Amino acid sequence: MNLENKIALVTGGGRGIGRGIVERFLEEGARVAIVQRSAVDQDLREDPRVMGVPADLANVSNFARIVERVARHWGGLDILVNNAGIMFERSVSEITEAEWNLMTATNLRAPLFLCQAALPHLRQRPGASIINIGSIEGIGANPDHTAYSATKAGLHGMTRALAVDLGADGIRCNAIAPGWIASDLSEAYLESFGDPGEARRSLNRLHPVGRVGQGADIGDVAVFLASDQSRFMTGETLVVDGGRTVKLPLPR
Ligand code: NDP
């Protein structure tokens, strides 16, 4: 197992992509703390290798308190995954300062200050790894996503800067830029089409691999980045999107 005896903190690990990461980490032998606003579900609660730490990362003023709780409980910290994030559509004409502040506080401020709080612990562990979950929207953009795209591009940039600053401490930092990963929200979106079946087929056709992603697709790459297998990689953003962003559109 690649993550035997490793301790990980995964933000937003209770559902969606974060859940995919948590489940793969557990399969690889890690113990995992999940930080999110809601309590973790029963399956996770009953697992002795999991601890839930409820916190609203957009409003936290003391990130050290979260990290200390995890490190005290498990006896250290090897891996930080900044996965929690929010996304909403707002046109440039409509977006308010409060909405911008919420997006940046959740998607950018929290990852940076969680890194800061985790540093004293990560510095003590050989092979420590930080993984930021960015997005292909840090590279391209969907309509009305100025704030979201800005935070994800920012997170990719922050990943490079952290890698430069933390290399001497033996801490690597990489990002994953997921493409379309199935979620409750994306399922509801597809169902809202007049012909959901055709919407699904047309979405699949955008992907050279012929399908959208699942949480485990990101979980597998996160295991790689968290483990010693990626020991010579830092500052990278890995696009994991089934080939969607490399497929050039043609008239049809
Ligand atoms: P979900 O909405 O399914 O899950 C988001 C997770 O983050 C939940 O566990 C949620 O828990 C937690 N979270 C949200 N806000 C906060 C907060 N203020 N404080 C603490 N925890 C919070 O999202 P996805 O799984 O789809 O996305 C996960 C990450 O992947 C995000 O960063 C997203 O931008 C990125 N991404 C997603 C893609 C996709 O197609 N799904 C594509 C590309 C990137 P709770 O609500 O209980 O706080």
From TrEMBL:
Keywords: Oxidoreductase. CDD domains: SDR_c. Pfam families: adh_short_C2. InterPro entries: NAD(P)-bd_dom_sf, Sc_DH/Rdtase_CS, SDR_fam. It comes from the Bacteria. PANTHER family: OXIDOREDUCTASE, SHORT-CHAIN DEHYDROGENASE/REDUCTASE FAMILY (AFU_ORTHOLOGUE AFUA_5G02870), SHORT-CHAIN DEHYDROGENASE_REDUCTASE FAMILY PROTEIN. Belongs to the short-chain dehydrogenases/reductases (SDR) family. This is SDR family oxidoreductase. It comes from Arthrobacter ginkgonis.
